[in-house]
Amino acid sequence: MVDFGDENASDFIVKLSDFYRYSLESRQKDVVPIEQELKMLSPYFFLIKSRFEEDISIEIMLSANHNGVLVPTFTLQLLVENAVKHNIISLDQPLHIEIVSDGNRILVRNNLQLKNIPEPSTKIGLENINQRYMHLAGKTITVETSNNFFTVALPVNEYISN
Prior knowledge:
Elements: H1 9-26, E1 31-33, H2 34-52, E2 56-61, E3 70-72, H3 75-86, E4 95-102, E5 105-111, H4 124-137, E6 142-145, E7 149-155
Parallel strand pairs: 2-4
Antiparallel strand pairs: 1-3, 4-5, 5-7, 6-7
């Protein structure tokens, strides 16, 4: 980007720096407030958007009831990464990711448009998130796949909330 004089190069470098700094600061933490996780997701998604431009979007609609909820670090980033890895992203088939409140859960959902030639998946990412929720909250995540959507439901309970 810098070599070609891309006008977004300096923003990209700043966001990459923000994401890297957050990674270093948070690597020893088991959980972080959802607001901090969303703050980290912003520069990460900027990096993704730099690659896919208008072919990808994210919408965050969390209720005030979920303010202060603690989540395992990098949960949202891993789920966004999972959506990017497994789905077609193009002008004709844009990927839309939503992070929404749903009662005592936070849903991370994307429209389902699986790649014709799937990338190898070890399912370690989802299993890692599930194991951390089991350890921290005694609850499991729920993974739901329909014809149109892939949804991961993150439990919210008193044990891992402020």
